[in-house]
Amino acid sequence: MLIRPQSSGDDSAIDRNLMSVGAVLFDIDNTLVDHHTSAVRGISEHLARLYPELSSNDLEPATATWLELEEIHMNGYLSGACTFQEQRRRRVRAMLDVLRREPLSEAGIDEWFAGYLHRYESSWCLFPDVVPALDQLRRLKNSPILGVLTNGDASQQNQ
């Protein structure tokens, strides 16, 4: 996933492979942090809390729909079609429509999303190979500068 130079246990071979690399940049979502798993856990828990009458048969397609809506509306944000906050609101409006729920005010939509966001952020987890890969890069004789970049919202990513 991250950097997998082949080595027979000899770090000097890895060091030679990376000797000319001055820096390595990592994306946050789905490179370092398992965004997909966090989003699935977050929305599943959120929907189950808000709508206890939903069966597990209902939750699975609703979760898949949420992930589709995330992609659609995040792409709208990334293309400049809407603000970061508005893409969140669009996702919630569309989800409420799919769930056949009454529309909410903007404040209600923001509150709905905040509940999801809390559960999503509580589910953040690194991929299992992130720490070993970063440790391996730090141990190199000519260790590159390590950096993180993202196309996400800066205030959320800086948490």
Provide structural commentary:
The model is unreliable at 1-8 (pLDDT under 50). The two termini are 24 Å apart. Helix content is 58%, strand content 6%. The protein has two domains: 8-33 and 126-154, no CATH class; 35-125. α4 (84-98) crosses α5. With 159 residues, the chain is mostly helical. Strands 1-2 form a two-stranded parallel ribbon. It is built from seven helices and two strands.
Which spans of ≥5 residues are poorly predicted at pLDDT below 50?
Answer: 1-8
Computed over alpha carbons, the radius of gyration is 20 Å
Taken together, the total number of domains comes to 2
The fraction of residues assigned to DSSP E strands is 5-15%
In percent, how helical is the residue content? 55-70%
Main β sheet profile: 2 strands, parallel
Alpha-carbon distance between the two ends = 24 Å
Mean pLDDT: 87
SSE arrangement, N to C? HEHHHHHEH
Number of helices: 7
Determine the structural class based on helices, strands and strand pairing: mainly alpha
In total, how many beta strands?
A: 2
Q: How are the strands of the largest sheet arranged?
A: 1-2
Shape: elongated
Give the topology, please.
Elements: H1 11-17, E1 23-27, H2 35-50, H3 56-78, H4 84-98, H5 106-122, H6 130-139, E2 145-149, H7 154-157
Parallel strand pairs: 1-2
Short description:
This protein has 159 residues and is mainly α. It folds into 2 domains: 8-33 and 126-154, no CATH class; 35-125. It is built from 7 helices and 2 strands; from the N terminus they run αβαααααβα.
Supply the key terms.
two-stranded parallel sheet, 159 residues, 2 strands, elongated, 7 helices, disordered N terminus, mainly alpha
